[in-house]
Amino acid sequence: MILFSDANGTIQANFGTPVYQGSANSNAIYLIAPYAPAASVMVGFQLPDGTAVAPVAMTPLNAVPGVQNAGGTTFAGWSYVLPATVTAKYGTVTAQFFFYAPTGQSANPTSIIATSATSFQIGRGAAAVLPDTPDADVYESILSNLAQLQTDLNGGYYGARAIFPWSNGATYGANEITFYPSIGTYGAFVQSVVAGNTNNAPYVGGAINSAYWKEVVNFNTIAEEYFQQVQAAVAQAESAASEAESSAQAAAGSATQSAGSAAEAAQSAQAAQTSAEAAQVWEERAANFSENAENSKNTASEYVSEAHNAADAAYTAMQSAQSSATEAQGYAEYTKQLVDGLGGVYIPQGSLVFASLPAQPAAQYQGYVWNITDAFTTDSRFLEGAGKSVPAGANVACVLVDGAYKYDVLSGIVDLSNYYTKTEVNNKVSAETSAREQSDENLQKAVNAKYTKPSTGIPESDLSATVQGSLEKADIAYQKPSGGIPKTDLASAVQASLGKADSAYQKPSTGIPKGDLASAVQTSLNKADTALQSIPIATASAVGGVKPTTKTSEMTQSVGVDSNGALWTKEASEGTTVVANPTATGTQDLTSLQVGGTVYNIPQGGAVEYATDEEIDALFEAAEPQDELIGTWVWNSFINSTTNTFNFSFTSNNTQYTGIKVYPEGRGVHVEYLKSNGESDYASTGGPSVYEEYKTIQITDVSSLTNREAFETWLKANATKQ
Q1: How many CB atoms lie within 10 A of CB 471?
Q2: Range 692-714 average pLDDT
Q3: Three-point CA angle 653, 654, 655, nearest 5°
Q4: Which of 44, 84, 36 has its CA nearest to residue 60?
Q5: Confidence band (pLDDT; 50, 70, 90) for 667?
């Protein structure tokens, strides 16, 4: 990803690239800012889980050619490859950059400019899969190798690594780094490109021995570039001073010219006055002279004002030149102090913890460099001042500054092989610039093609053909009158229907009177008015109905009907006799009936009426006992589950059903009401009871039940009949 910062530390742009969880040393951050390429830049992170990663040094990439800010300052670049510790967790990572004493920003070598925070996303990856646990033999082999490595370290076997100068008697492995002091004035760090590298000098004839070595950092090049920058600053200051002097001289010349112009103006004014007094004929010419004199006077005043402004500008330029010269001299003196303070080339002293650093920097340690393996905070012994946090792995040198020995924190060594080159960065910047230009061009085309609505509204001709067609249909469409659609606007069939409706019978609000009914209906109603309204109980003197009752010992009747509708008679042994026409003799019609001591008269000549088949069926149906399952049932609040399907007819929620399917579901019960068309409604899907709208069922027919006993047991246990 590429980030751009201004001189105040504000991140102006962030061109991100995808970064995914678990990546290591493959994604780089490039920072472009208007600071000197030699400025030390560090970057710190806050991970998605809130963990803070201490600032680490970024690798300088020198100036970016062709890229300048509005003031003409050249931009430089720095890079940093993201390690696994930064990409271990997915989410938002926040980054902040720190510029240490950037050239042109502060003469104080301990000043720090911190940028605004910026962020990027770590995409989620798969969880790391750990290898299988090794067996005991593997652990024993690991411990043995660690012991051998410790022995080799204690014996100086790896003494030729980066903390000691190169030795022709040492053997270097591939990618090992060492310091070679015998090149130039300040030496260089080099990296072996082959394994088993023995007795091969890193430089031959002043050039890198590329068959065996690769140059990592050449301190001679760094020192030369820094001195060139200092010289350029001094030259710039001298140039500014020269320009200031020229401006002052120009200001003095302008002042002299202004004075001369003022004198000429006075002379012209005097000449004009003399000409006016001399003769009337010269009056017009004198007036012209007077006007010219006034203009000359104004011009002279302008020259004086410009001279003052030029003098002020010259003074300001002179002060700026003096300040630039002083600042350049300060950088030169500071650089000389650092170089002199080293007393020569760095002398690596190995690695140690901060607490083991010599208590006080002294002459015997001048030029010594230690690699501090733990993070620490600077104190009064440091050139940077007290209270600065430094991450683990930093290098600390002992230097002499202003007659006092101090510790100075140096940046560590970074392998640049995995970093983008300057050309690659330029290509990426160029590609991004082209993409933005194309986007701007496309946007401009879109703006140019944008339709401008006329002030009087969009005319119909500017609309699409489809919209115009719809508008034409709307123009010829029927417009409903404000008072409603008149009958004459309706279709003839609709008008005919409305005519029939107008002549149709209108039911009175109090109901249809008898006189409006058909004659047959009126006749039926008349019969209903005179029909038998109720059947009286039969007595000895009147015909009527028989009320069933249970026979008891107190009853004296010889004939009766019990509560089940069965006819019973009194046995002869009970002392009751039945005699027909007890007072008559011979053959004759039955006119009376004697039961025991009671004589019942039987009326003669009465009409005989017979019941219809429907009336007889109704009597039998009323006499038959009803199935106890038929009727209204309401499900209980909790239903015991079973697994079965019951086929019978019932209604619920105004719907006719042909059966119930039930089985356990989850912690509750599944109840499904089945329909004749194969569809069904869910009355419960795992709840303790059925839904409220299906809670009442009306059973109408159970003749199709093939498992009646199971259904009857389950129904009575889970529902209540109303």
Answers
A1: 11
A2: 93
A3: 90
A4: 36
A5: confident
- CATH 2.60.40 residue ranges of the chain are 2-125+420-431
Torsion sign (Cα): 107, 111, 117, 123: positive
Burial class, 632, CB count within 10 angstroms (exposed 0-12 / middle 13-18 / buried 19+): middle
Fold topology of 2-125+420-431: Immunoglobulin-like (2.60.40)
Closest CA to 600 of 590, 592, 591, 608: 592
Q: CA 619, CA 627: separation in Å to the nearest integer? A: 17
How far is C-alpha 495 from the geometric centre of its chain's CA atoms? 63
**What local confidence, expressed as pLDDT, does residue 168 receive?**
84
Percent of the chain clearing pLDDT 70 (strictly above) = 64
- pTM of the model as a whole: 0.24
Tally of CA atoms within 13 A in the half-sphere of 122 that contains its CB: 26
Please state the φ and ψ torsions of residue 629, each to the nearest 5 degrees.
-80, -20
Q: Residue 63 pairs with which residues in a beta bridge?
A: 76
214 within 8 A of 267, measured Cβ to Cβ? no
pLDDT at 106 exceeding the cut of 50: no
Query: What is the band of 658 on the pLDDT scale with cuts at 50, 70, 90?
Result: very high
What 3-state class would DSSP assign to 417? coil
- Cα separation of 186 and 226, whole Å? 13
Q: Is 289 exposed, middle or buried (0-12, 13-18, 19+ CB in 10 A)?
A: buried
DSSP of 278-338: H-GGGHHHHHHHHHHHHHHHHHHHHHHHHHHHHHHHHHHHHHHHHHHHHHHHHHHHHHHHH
